[in-house]
């Protein structure tokens, strides 16, 4: 009796201790696999269905493909690139749009004038955490990476310059990664297919086919360059984007001057999400805008839907206008561009995709969708650094990793083992308690003895 109880205790103890993590954040001797994160701006998810990408297909055929990423509102370049590297919604990281105004300091932000740390400091991007953990990070023009954020400037980085070619950006990154083994995170930004999407509109299949084929060639160049520098297959590579693109038209214009007098408000940002500060007669400004156009939603800051994660920030202006898909807000005049993005982040046309290759990823794994904020906890896990508080979930992405047990068979086996462990544990506990009872309890002694008689042969 006593020995069987002791055995049970031992059994439980070994199970508990073997399930505890044994190492430190940077496992297996601190030899972390480097991660390269690549963004092709404005790569709409369904381009993958409508065009051919021989190189990209080669890239993810032995790796991971997520058909669609649900990105963050506003579906603009800067908010989404900052969400990818912080795991935060726009209201929490503070980069809410391409143009911003801060009422307390009266400062202005635009993507041409973005280097004041003030706008970025609310969040800590992954490259800062990587360097704080004792590694090095490198970036080629990822939005924000040339800014001093949280009193930290990246040494391996470029000032934004659209004239520096893809292969020069990539060449510098791979050089840094091979020269300095401490570089564990590198980010690479490229302007296409966004630039052509705006210029021609995504419905111009001839131009889009041309530019998307060029983008695919760049993926080929990337694989080749990684191969010749010995990095291919050794490092983890993620290729993704910030948002999609939709067709606009001269027939879908919302003209503000027809509804509100131009001197009654200040326009901080215009289309497809307008940020408006009423200057006088704010009730009338709101009323006039509310009845302005059936394809434009008008919100007072407080009435913005929670799902947009956009209202809890002092840089969100008092009135926000959101155009329906494909509609363009102008003050007056004509259509500024044939393609645009920035619309509601539930629209599939606003979603980008994600593909990955490298030792960490489950080969040939595909997922229909994922939240773009979930990428951050995944990347922190890959590098082995603790994530900052964020809006993503590692649980939702863990199955993309080769070493996680996720297949349906593994899940079923896991469930059976789990149930067995629980059953044995309870049996053990029950036995332990019973053993204690035998020596003390009098009224049920007989019952106990009866049972013991049955049990005894089985135990030995
Ligand atoms: C774990 O990491 C911490 C902080 O980086 C370090 O101080 C500590 O020495 C590490 N412990 C082990 C066992 O590696
Ligand atoms: C850029 O922004 C800063 C701070 O908001 C401002 O002082 C400066 O004048 C701006 N520069 C340009 C060229 O607009
Ligand atoms: C920001 O822009 C507004 C409107 O154009 C202007 O009144 C204000 O002075 C600007 N702030 C700074 C710091 O330049
Ligand atoms: C910012 O960093 C520099 C050196 O990198 C340091 O001397 C300075 O004290 C830091 N400032 C703050 C406010 O942390
Ligand atoms: C790095 O970028 C510069 C341009 O900024 C370019 O002249 C140089 O060739 C690049 N280096 C490599 C190795 O590609
Ligand atoms: C890498 O280079 C080797 C030798 O040149 C070649 O056989 C292989 O196909 C290349 N792999 C990729 C992914 O380009
Ligand atoms: C609101 O609309 C009315 C009627 O069109 C117009 O007379 C008035 O000037 C507008 N008010 C403002 C503040 O734009
Ligand atoms: C108008 O402005 C006043 C004072 O700033 C404010 O109390 C009120 O809520 C505003 N109303 C609207 C509709 O914005
Ligand atoms: C997003 O994460 C930040 C940081 O943890 C938190 O403050 C914020 O409340 C989160 N937002 C939501 C909607 O959970
Ligand atoms: Zn973009």
From TrEMBL:
Primary site of residence: membrane
Compartments reported by the entry: Cell membrane
Keywords in alphabetical order: Blood coagulation, Cell membrane, Disulfide bond, Glycoprotein, Hemostasis, Hydrolase, Membrane, Metal-binding, Signal, Transmembrane, Transmembrane helix, Zinc
Gene3D superfamilies: 3.30.1360.180, Alkaline Phosphatase, subunit A
Keyword Lyase: no
Pfam families: Phosphodiest
Membrane topology (UniProt): Single-pass type I membrane protein
EC numbers on record: 3.6.1.29
Cofactor dependency: Zn(2+)
InterPro entries (UniProt xref): Alkaline_phosphatase_core_sf (IPR017850), Phosphodiest/P_Trfase (IPR002591)
Originating organism: Triplophysa tibetana
GO biological process: blood coagulation
Gene Ontology cellular component annotations, sorted alphabetically: plasma membrane
Domain of life: Eukaryota
Signal peptide range: 1-19
Protein's recorded name: bis(5'-adenosyl)-triphosphatase
Residues annotated as transmembrane: 409-432
Top EC group: hydrolase
GO molecular function: bis(5'-adenosyl)-triphosphatase activity; metal ion binding
